[in-house]
Write a structure and sequence with these properties.
By secondary structure, this protein is of the alpha+beta class. It has four helices and five strands; from the N terminus they run αααβαββββ. A five-stranded mixed β-sheet has the order 1-5-4-3-2, covered by helices on one side.
């Protein structure tokens, strides 16, 4: 083999290797970051259980931790729309003394993508009057809109209203 054919062969190998590495690099770069799998409807429906458990702690800040910083809360027993953490904490400071115990009656979940979902339906709360100890049940419609942020599912929109015919 001549020196010239060895040089040509080396150049071809070098170019081929560069093209192959360039192609692999481009494929890796365009593949983007790995995304979590789309959650199941059951996983989204179970987020209510975590929220309900936070209610049972009696700590308004623990409940507010379930909401995104920019969440909107249209609460069941208040006419005021809550649009930030301080207002959400304030609502639960007044709601939690009633020792709410929630239970879903009907739920419909729509998983929109890997990082967002909606859970809507009907739930009821058993509330205890802090002065008399008397219990009452409030049936309400609800909608939770969830987003996965920083690996954690958070409520970004929560609407709850007493059933009009209840």
């Amino acid at each position: 083999m001549t020196r010239r054919s060895i040089s040509k062969r080396a150049a071809v190998v070098t170019v081929t290797t560069a093209l192959a590495l360039g192609t692999l690099g481009t494929v890796a770069a365009t593949a983007g970051p790995q995304h979590d799998a789309k959650p199941s409807k059951k996983q989204i429906a179970a987020l209510f259980d975590g929220w309900n458990a936070a209610l049972r702690t009696g700590d308004p800040k623990k409940v507010a931790n379930r909401y995104a910083p920019d969440a909107v809360l249209l609460p069941t027993v208040s006419n005021k729309i809550r649009t930030d953490r301080a207002e959400i904490v304030d609502y639960f400071e007044h709601f939690l003394p009633n020792k709410p115990a929630g239970k879903k009656i009907e739920t419909i979940v729509n998983v929109l993508d890997n990082n967002s979902a909606i859970d809507t339906g009907i739930y009821e709360f058993t509330l205890t009057d802090p002065e008399t100890g008397k219990k009452r049940v409030v049936e309400a419609r609800y909608t939770y809109e969830y987003e996965k942020r920083g690996g954690k599912w958070l409520i970004v929109n929560h609407h709850s209203s007493v059933m009009p015919e209840g």
